[in-house]
Design a protein that fits this description.
This protein has 298 residues and is α/β, with parallel strands linked by helices. The protein contains 8 helices and 16 strands. β11 (221-224), α6 and β12 form a beta-alpha-beta unit.
Length: 298
């Protein structure tokens, strides 16, 4: 696979703000997380008659744009292996505003699915049963049962370890993060973005481009800095991730998806405990009474 083009890393925007402290105001320099649009283009078909289509336009924090594009296509179930991709580049013709993914000759994607008719978000009013059926029709297989467990003390510490890898958040306080961990709790990669779904796309796309795919073969744990939505569960499922740990709450459809496809879903993760919403067999509870109380299956 070939990569070309410059990667924009303009993730911070300096500004001046009026800070009010103790009823007194003062002008002070500050930084904001950058939010800019990115167009994801896909070239498919045969070499004699290639077809160019826009897969999505998303608002994101610049940086790791190639990973974002690949992760998005993976999450939609449109890519299956690294052999599907021939090139990923940004010189098309607006670097920093577009990423173009060139597929192997002969591979044609079903772009009708990109209109999001094949699954329902929490805002569209389609029932959870229809959403789960859509995932099955998209050939997302359940996660195989695992013979590994992670200690509850390690689960409690995952958000702290994720936060330590959030470079831009430390300066702005305005970004979501997604990180991949091994089952011993070691942080392997972290990505930040103004959109929680973009952060997940970036971190799964990075693993795909590095040849670590599917993630079910590597016992990876996905940790997200916010809540767990149906969309994030879909992306985890498409990547073969067996466990998703969220700092915030899951939605009802996220829990249904986890139960239906064999994913361990953990929410409200804090230093002294967490809630297990599905797949509790992958968590080994500690002897500590405080953890045993808080790490309860809901």
């Amino acid at each position: 696979m070939r990569y070309t083009g410059d990667v924009s890393e303009r993730r911070l925007q300096p500004v001046r703000v009026e800070k009010v402290r103790d009823y007194q105001s003062s002008s002070s320099p500050d930084v904001l997380a950058v939010e800019e649009p990115l167009e994801i283009q896909v070239v498919s078909g045969d070499e004699a008659h290639p077809e160019l289509a826009t897969a999505a336009i998303t608002m994101r924090t610049p940086g790791h744009d190639r990973e974002l594009a690949i992760g998005f296509l993976l999450g939609e179930g449109l890519l299956r292996s690294l052999d599907d991709v021939r090139e990923v580049h940004t010189q098309v013709p607006r670097p920093g505003e577009q990423v173009r993914v060139v597929l192997r000759p002969g591979l044609v994607l079903d772009f009708a699915r990109l209109q999001r008719n094949f699954y329902a978000t929490s805002s569209c009013g389609v029932c959870g049963k229809a959403s789960l059926q859509a995932l099955e029709l998209n050939q997302f297989a359940p996660i195989p049962a695992s013979d590994w467990q992670i200690d509850s003390e390690v689960v409690c510490d995952l958000p702290r370890r994720l936060r330590e890898g959030q470079e831009v958040f430390a300066q702005t306080g305005g970004l979501h993060a997604a990180g991949l961990f091994d089952r011993e709790g070691n942080l392997l990669s972290v990505r930040e973005d103004v959109g929680r779904h973009n952060a997940v796309d970036k971190v799964t796309g990075a693993s795909f481009l590095a040849g670590e795919w599917p993630l079910a073969d590597f016992d990876r744990i996905l940790v997200v800095s916010g809540r767990a939505s149906f969309e994030l569960m879909q992306k985890a499922l498409a990547s073969g991730i067996a466990m998703l740990v969220a700092v915030g709450a899951p939605s009802s459809l996220a829990v249904e998806t986890a139960e239906h496809f064999g994913i361990t879903l953990i929410g409200f993760t804090k230093p002294n405990g967490f809630n297990i919403y599905a797949g509790g067999a992958r968590v080994r509870l500690a002897a500590s009474p405080s953890l045993a109380i808080h790490a309860e299956t809901v």
